[in-house]
Amino acid sequence: MQVHKAVLLLGLASILVWGTAAQDESVRIGVVDIDQAISSTEEGKAAREDFARKQREAQEEIDPMVEEYRKLEEDLKAKKFVLSDEALFQKQLDLAQIRNQIENKMKELEGRLQVEQKRLEGPLTKKLVEIIEETGKSSGFTLILRRGAPGMLYSREALDITDLIVEKYNQKG
User: Of 48, 43, 33, which Cα lies nearest the Cα of 127?
Assistant: First the structure.
């Protein structure tokens, strides 16, 4: 699937370059690193700090469960040879139950954090895309690519317009 997207992107870029070259217009290509742009804006920094705080809170939710698991595991190792088979089996079941609770809680928190990240960064990304489109039109770019997009393997630093986009974003902010 990635190869198909890469071939499609390359074909589109070739047609675009060929079409504009036929019209004797210069081709201007720009590259934008969306993640870097988000991290460089004031709103993006605030969103990333908020997300980091939510990650710490999620970790604080899971830490007591992990600590309980460790204590129970150490207790089981220490008493393994003196417990009856039934008591040993019960402790092993307790350990398995806590492990399952930890795994379930981690999945829940991971899902919650993914939603939160999209909620925080979604509007920023949308605004950045609008600014990229405006910049492309007003500055005469033929093509602006997203760094890290499928099909993009290399670009010269001279093509990077991320700083320009961040500057325009901060002016609008």
Answer: 43
